[in-house]
Design brief:
2 domains; two-stranded antiparallel sheet; 4 strands
């Protein structure tokens, strides 16, 4: 259930961190709401109030990192009320935890909110196949904030991508270096992957690339830098070959196209292997 998911996020992440996180800066926006005890639903001795709905809406806005439209809020209201009707006793039991989670998203530390945001997404992906309430929320969330990537164990949001780039830019700034080019690498990922495959397609180049991989990659942390290095080499190889072919074709005419392809590859291969022209 969606309520139990939020409570689980609370138990496993933010409540353990609240008040202890060193990361006190961030994008906290304090939502000031009047205290409302208007009952939306009553089932025996259990009641669901407008205040509890406000908590859920603030949590969801915090997870999605942007305000919810009136239509989205209406959909969330429908989900939580249906969930309450399904098992009022269970929902009533976790409402205090849900309220504490809402308070973290309203005014908690940035690190606490980040942990909770990531856990909420990941748990939603895990539970959605078997929980109709979580599935309904996840469909709404994906429409509001489409995911960059997901698997059974992780979720990549646009916010995560932005944080990745900012982390690299911070290191570059502290080192007095130009900003990271990760953005262009990501934007041109397909061509860079194809250029790398081009290297693997020729025996001599593949042997050189594999030898470099064996020499430089000894731990998981080594994989990403080496992958980018090979992509750069592949792009340089393609550019060198194309430049040579263009010059050769300009001299010899279009009839030399087939011949220039082979010679361009040979020329680029020698350059790649450090053998000169």
């Amino acid at each position: 259930m969606r309520f139990l998911l939020v409570a689980l996020c609370s138990a496993s992440t933010a409540l353990a961190l609240c008040g202890q996180s060193p990361c006190r800066t961030g994008d906290t926006v304090r939502t000031v709401r009047p205290v409302r005890t208007v009952q939306l639903l009553q089932s025996g001795k259990y009641a669901y109030t407008q205040e509890s709905l406000d908590d859920v809406i603030d949590i969801d806005a915090g997870v999605l990192v942007s305000p919810l439209s009136a239509d989205e809020q209406a959909q969330i209201r429908s989900i939580v009320l249906d969930e309450f009707k399904n098992d009022p006793a269970k929902i009533a039991k976790v409402l205090p935890q849900v309220h504490r989670v809402a308070e973290v998203f309203r005014s908690g530390a940035a690190m606490d909110r980040a942990f909770m945001r990531e856990s909420d997404w990941e748990l939603s992906i895990k539970l959605a196949p078997t929980d109709p309430f979580v599935a309904r929320w996840l469909a709404l969330a994906k429409r509001h904030a489409p995911l960059v990537a997901q698997s059974d164990s992780f979720v990549v949001t646009q916010r995560a991508i932005d944080a990745f780039f900012l982390s690299s830019d911070c290191v570059a700034a502290l080192a007095g270096q130009p900003r990271s080019t990760s953005e262009s690498h990501l934007a041109h990922a397909e061509r860079r992957w194809l250029a790398t495959q081009f290297l693997y397609g020729y025996t001599d180049l593949r042997a050189t690339a594999l030898e470099e991989i064996k020499q430089k990659v000894h731990a998981p942390a080594d994989v990403q830098p080496e992958a980018r290095t090979l992509e750069n080499a592949g792009m340089q190889f393609i550019n060198t070959m194309n430049t040579y072919m263009s010059h050769f074709a300009a001299i010899g005419g279009l009839s030399y196209k087939g011949q220039t392809t082979a010679q361009g590859i040979n020329f680029a291969t020698r350059k790649f292997m450090g053998q000169g022209p």
